[in-house]
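Internal tracking record. Fields below are filled automatically when a chain is submitted to the structure queue. Please do not edit lines marked as system-generated. If the sequence contains nonstandard residues, flag them in the REMARKS field before resubmitting.
Queue: standard
Priority: normal
Entity type: single polypeptide chain
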Amino acid sequence: MTPVTSQHAASVEFDHVTKSYDAAASKAGAPGAVNDLSLSIPAGRICVLVGPSGCGKTTSLKMVNRLIEPTSGRILLDGVDAATRDTTELRRGIGYVIQQTGLFPHQTIEDNVVTVPRLLGWDKARMRARAEELLSVVGLEPATYAKRYPAQLSGGERQRVGVARALAADPPIMLMDEPFGAVDPIVRERLQNEFLRLQEQLAKTILFVTHDIDEAIKMGDLVVVFQAGGVVAQVGPPAEILASPASDYVARFVGTDRGLKRLSLFRVGELPLEPVVMAQVGSDGSIARRVAAEGTFRHVLVTDGGSRPIGWVHRDALTSGIVTAEQVESTSPLLDRRTTLKDALSMLLDADVQAGLVTDRTGAVRGMVTVDSITALMREPDARPRDALERAAGEADADADDAHPAEAAGA
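SYSTEM-GENERATED OUTPUT FOLLOWS
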């Protein structure tokens, strides 16, 4: 399968944009659906518009592809005023995903995915290859799904098809209006995670509308908090909005659990991992006991021959005999470097343990994180998470280390 490729992303700028549905009221200076919106979104970033119903976030989104025309002001796409573009050409160059997907029920999934390429005159072989490529990318096996119809898919599967369709012509900008709002919480989280993974590869410029502040914080590089009347209450990275709400309204909207929400911005891989004393099955237990006695952590991790964890044993239970799997007394949750600290803390509390084991893609232990190390970060108001590009680079380096563990260890 040919890997997904992407053309350049485009910057988006709202320049004093107002939308009023009442011309008389607008002339009188009364508030409209959107009021004097000025906002710059860098190319390749996700900007989330969040706020209560009727605050103007969807209206702002639809003005980008001119489904709604601004009353005044300009929207610049890579510096070009959208109002000067041919409407049909403009819309074909912008991906659009809505809550109910909007799939054509009488067309197969393959035909739905290539809706825009078909309008652009692509040949059949190219369209078929693109549909297969994108269905694979969004986790739908082409051989199984390409010839099915939307009614034969679950809500989550239809939403994936909607994302694939929006990507089909490789648009530099994507608009997503409550894209995961119609599925259950488990499927929603999976779709969010898969989309963020995909964004690491494609780096599209995305405007994403939601009413859910947790989703906004998780998905956005930049968050725009709207309040009633189409007025922007605050714009900034998620960490900044959580750490320093600009007003009482923003503080109330974000919620009293701002500290916990901040943890969703950080990943396990951003914490310094604490060392783990390990004893391989079949090794001399007295050696591990002696090493463990030099530290404050009283347990030793029993592992298999590949350094994969089996469970914990108290150091005092280890004698001069051979370590066996039967000596294991307890286990810890296994964490991935990409696990958010909020999820990691939840897993530790649910398991009623103080430490979680961080494993690489082979399942080998790389270190541990503790409840204390996570809560210490919560108390650091100046702590800032890596941005998406930094995180992608860091995770790529870590994946390379997993592939060559001896080199990573300095062997």
